């Protein structure tokens, strides 16, 4: 896949992902041209069209158009389902996604896309696995603990002893390395034990 | 999944976004953005150090502004700072900003790479993931240089987490696409292949993409992937719909992976191992069977995913093109889709059938759907589907249905969308020519084409009809009659006037017997259109008139009156004015005999590939054209437009706008860069004016000198032969006096053979060099003619005396190669360079090369040097582009053992694909991409032009990297040609 564009009925670009190096000028030109072409098409028409030397696969979901440019030998139907799977992922993450979700949380839309597609190729097709990756990241976001916070955890009687041992082992390491590992470790432990993080 | 933290607390960002959304006008939006930019700038510049959160928030705002389409020129540094944050969320935003807004600021790249390096080394899978995503998103050369060595290690390391492996695989793929030179092949490749067996389907999915891309370039190294892919595929297609859990998509097991595996298999020919092959056939049959089963779900996702796999399987079947049974089943399946209610499926079925039509096994099966396809052309509401229908009709056309298909296409053309008219016109023109049994049908079709869609009929189309009419005398009378009738229409397209003008000018006499189309009526008919036409057409008509003067002496005065009128003689357009003046003069002063010769009927055009076909290919070609391609195209259009030096009889005036005009000009002006079309015609006219006597002289002497180019150039030298004494100059006499060995030809200079070989694939360079003398060459070849400039450089400070270069051909060579040159000045001053031009004509194919013998006196000593002159058969190559199926069809036709020549030899140079390609192109044949099922092989095609015949040549070079060997196969219609070309080319690798 060479690029993916999301735009609204009104022609406003909501998300753009380029998998080939192009100048900003060229990107804008392509976007303008394609938005125009796709919006001009009638609802019953087929979802594929030839454009320059590429194939365009697009589909409309409510007010949003999802539009992918693929190369000659790429499979159109599977691309259509790439779009659908991405929509499902957004839907699951945001809980019945709407255009506003994508506007206000554009960075999340990009993160989800990166987990699903990388370098223009499908990286992970399992919905569960993609969302798990995003979920973990979100958890990490909440566990924004500072160094003092860590000591609190350590002295908290309910903390899992493993965390303590782990900390001891890596205490010789640099501060950065250390926090990095504790982040993952604690979060992993909590997942394992099914506990909810409460601090 | 609960939305954990929508906007994750960046309230400022949410407020800003809603502000922007509330802006009523573009101006208000820009104002709000500028305010925000000023705010962020002051925050970034402020004395107070920003905390991570604020930095993240502002960087995110900048990103949002950029994505709205505004330029951002600051904030990069802050984003880079975020990369080294320990907070995941800050790092993530930093990476996102870099991915979207990277520029090649070298300062920053170093910092970014550093941050990435740290994250890759962190062994924290989440951070590694972020870093890999960033590399994959940016994919710049700098990043490739920094990380292409590292990523394969991460990919194959035993302790790497699955998700990191997936990212690493695709990251590597991206780097390989942008900078393959930085991605080293190594032990890791074999371990990557084994990822196809990985437990984790996500890893397999990502790895398959990587392997497919790598295998396209290095098929040998990834050959083992075939059997692994087949067994993986087989496990997927036979699995129950719930086996693969989350990798099942709407009851279809792992559709993405299946499609990718089928794509991977398309990089290779059918598996050689019978067991693997059988298993693959089973898989493909299962996929075809499943298409017939009732759907497991009514959801479109189910059918899409299922059919995606099906279409990919059909692509593989077509690619292998070896199982007639599967091909026919595939065709039937597609036939069902042709009438499916889903537009998407109809579209894809038409598209796939197009490729199926070119397989000999399924061509007939495809043809049975002709009515459905024609119907699609008439009833489809979507132009892109109709376009596919046109493509398919074109692909399925053969002699049996050509008339029907051409008629339907012409029918459709009347109402066709403007966007595809030109392409349809080209297709109709090609089909009409290719399958014309009866050339009257061809002429009718083309004239219809001009009538219906004259504006879309390109130059190539009407040039072509003229070429054909001129070459076939059985159709000339009919053509004249038909254009005459077509011109009766009160409003006819200008292209029709051009064709009409040209044809009547040549063959108007064939219908002049009929009183309804008497000479005067013909002339009046054409002249009635004259004033409505553009300048180029009028120029053409003026040439028609002068041709009429010759054809119909009875209307000479009428024509002279027209030429003499002020509107012609004083025309503001210099081209028209000049033609009128020249033609009027010509008609007045020249005798009937001379007129008859000068204005003789055009000689037949050499047979060549249809120019229209090239045009169609050009149209379909990629949008971006590099310089090189541009040059190639230019060359192509030259070839096909007919401007190459066609053997023009010097005494025939070509119609000014005909393709031949250019060649006349070219012959006259010599090897300078080709002038533009307009210039060239003017030049020719100019020469016509000043050079009329010269042309006549050319005519009178043409009997004795068969080479037209030499005469026009006025070199007038006698052909040199081995038996002839050195050109008689004053110097040569002296040589005879001084030297006893002057007439003895020296043996070949050492290294001459090597040097000779270097020139097989190139035309310019240094042929010979010693302490005294340097010989440089520059040559160019066109069809069966060539010209070589030999430069003799005196490297010393002393004069060379009695400098006598001689070309020596054996008797045998003399009969097949005609060389002409002029003697050079016998004195070459110290440090000076003299030039000698050799005109070359290839009469028939030849084996040896001529010898260039140079004799001169330097100081007191006599020098005698002989070198082989690199005039080789392949110089008369004309590249021919053709599609895979054409190639193999011709290949099969040349299956006589005498026609084939094969040589297996050891590589003498490193086996580099690009260099090999360059050599094959330099050799003169076209390099055909995507023809050989094995992408490592090289395939070429071309035509050797000699005066007597043209010989089609096909070649195939199969490198074997492991053994460092090549196998070269040549197939041509002539044994000696196969032999010689094989000899020459074998020396090159």
UniProtKB/TrEMBL annotation, chain B:
<dbReference type="InterPro" id="IPR011989">
    <property type="entry name" value="ARM-like"/>
</dbReference>
<comment type="subunit">
    <text>Adaptor protein complex 2 (AP-2) is a heterotetramer composed of two large adaptins (alpha-type subunit AP2A1 or AP2A2 and beta-type subunit AP2B1), a medium adaptin (mu-type subunit AP2M1) and a small adaptin (sigma-type subunit AP2S1).</text>
</comment>
<dbReference type="GO" id="GO:0035615">
    <property type="term" value="F:clathrin adaptor activity"/>
</dbReference>
<comment type="similarity">
    <text>Belongs to the adaptor complexes large subunit family.</text>
</comment>
<dbReference type="InterPro" id="IPR003164">
    <property type="entry name" value="Clathrin_a-adaptin_app_sub_C"/>
</dbReference>
<feature type="compositionally biased region" description="Polar residues">
    <location>
        <begin position="638"/>
        <end position="652"/>
    </location>
</feature>
<dbReference type="Pfam" id="PF02883">
    <property type="entry name" value="Alpha_adaptinC2"/>
</dbReference>
<keyword id="KW-1003">Cell membrane</keyword>
<feature type="binding site">
    <location>
        <position position="43"/>
    </location>
    <ligand>
        <name>a 1,2-diacyl-sn-glycero-3-phospho-(1D-myo-inositol-3,4,5-trisphosphate)</name>
    </ligand>
</feature>
<dbReference type="InterPro" id="IPR002553">
    <property type="entry name" value="Clathrin/coatomer_adapt-like_N"/>
</dbReference>
<dbReference type="InterPro" id="IPR050840">
    <property type="entry name" value="Adaptor_Complx_Large_Subunit"/>
</dbReference>
<comment type="function">
    <text>Component of the adaptor protein complex 2 (AP-2). Adaptor protein complexes function in protein transport via transport vesicles in different membrane traffic pathways. Adaptor protein complexes are vesicle coat components and appear to be involved in cargo selection and vesicle formation. AP-2 is involved in clathrin-dependent endocytosis in which cargo proteins are incorporated into vesicles surrounded by clathrin (clathrin-coated vesicles, CCVs) which are destined for fusion with the early endosome.</text>
</comment>
<dbReference type="InterPro" id="IPR012295">
    <property type="entry name" value="TBP_dom_sf"/>
</dbReference>
<feature type="region of interest" description="Disordered">
    <location>
        <begin position="624"/>
        <end position="656"/>
    </location>
</feature>
<dbReference type="Pfam" id="PF01602">
    <property type="entry name" value="Adaptin_N"/>
</dbReference>
<keyword id="KW-0813">Transport</keyword>
<feature type="binding site">
    <location>
        <begin position="57"/>
        <end position="61"/>
    </location>
    <ligand>
        <name>a 1,2-diacyl-sn-glycero-3-phospho-(1D-myo-inositol-3,4,5-trisphosphate)</name>
    </ligand>
</feature>
<keyword id="KW-0254">Endocytosis</keyword>
<feature type="domain" description="Clathrin adaptor alpha/beta/gamma-adaptin appendage Ig-like subdomain">
    <location>
        <begin position="757"/>
        <end position="870"/>
    </location>
</feature>
<dbReference type="GO" id="GO:0030122">
    <property type="term" value="C:AP-2 adaptor complex"/>
</dbReference>
<dbReference type="Pfam" id="PF02296">
    <property type="entry name" value="Alpha_adaptin_C"/>
</dbReference>
<dbReference type="InterPro" id="IPR016024">
    <property type="entry name" value="ARM-type_fold"/>
</dbReference>
<feature type="binding site">
    <location>
        <position position="53"/>
    </location>
    <ligand>
        <name>a 1,2-diacyl-sn-glycero-3-phospho-(1D-myo-inositol-3,4,5-trisphosphate)</name>
    </ligand>
</feature>
<dbReference type="GO" id="GO:0072583">
    <property type="term" value="P:clathrin-dependent endocytosis"/>
</dbReference>
<keyword id="KW-0168">Coated pit</keyword>
<dbReference type="InterPro" id="IPR008152">
    <property type="entry name" value="Clathrin_a/b/g-adaptin_app_Ig"/>
</dbReference>
<dbReference type="InterPro" id="IPR017104">
    <property type="entry name" value="AP2_complex_asu"/>
</dbReference>
<keyword id="KW-0472">Membrane</keyword>
<feature type="binding site">
    <location>
        <begin position="11"/>
        <end position="12"/>
    </location>
    <ligand>
        <name>a 1,2-diacyl-sn-glycero-3-phospho-(1D-myo-inositol-3,4,5-trisphosphate)</name>
    </ligand>
</feature>
<dbReference type="GO" id="GO:0006886">
    <property type="term" value="P:intracellular protein transport"/>
</dbReference>
<dbReference type="InterPro" id="IPR009028">
    <property type="entry name" value="Coatomer/calthrin_app_sub_C"/>
</dbReference>
<protein>
    <recommendedName>
        <fullName>AP-2 complex subunit alpha</fullName>
    </recommendedName>
</protein>
<dbReference type="InterPro" id="IPR013041">
    <property type="entry name" value="Clathrin_app_Ig-like_sf"/>
</dbReference>
<keyword id="KW-0653">Protein transport</keyword>
